[in-house]
Amino acid sequence: MSAQNTEGTEASNGNRLRCNNCGSEAIVTKAGGSSLNCCGAPLEVTFGR
Ligand SMILES: [Zn+2]
Hints:
By secondary structure, this protein is mainly β. The chain has strands spanning 16-18, 25-27, 37-38, 41-42, 44-46. The chain has one domain (1-49): SOR catalytic domain (Immunoglobulin-like, Sandwich). It contains no helices and five strands. The strands form two sheets. Strands 2-1-5 form a three-stranded antiparallel β-sheet, with no helix packed on it. It has a two-stranded antiparallel ribbon with strand order 3-4. β1 (16-18) and β2 form a beta hairpin. Bound molecules: zinc ion (ZN). Residues 19, 21-22, 24, 38-39 line the site of zinc ion.
């Protein structure tokens, strides 16, 4: 439901990722690269600021 082109595990450079399990956050620094994982699950892209 987002206008951003970041569906699935794909993320754009600068997007923020968050782990729903432990709450850790990470910033995407390499768009199109391997998806980041935490707690055995891919991090979810967030659009909060
Ligand atoms: Zn985690």
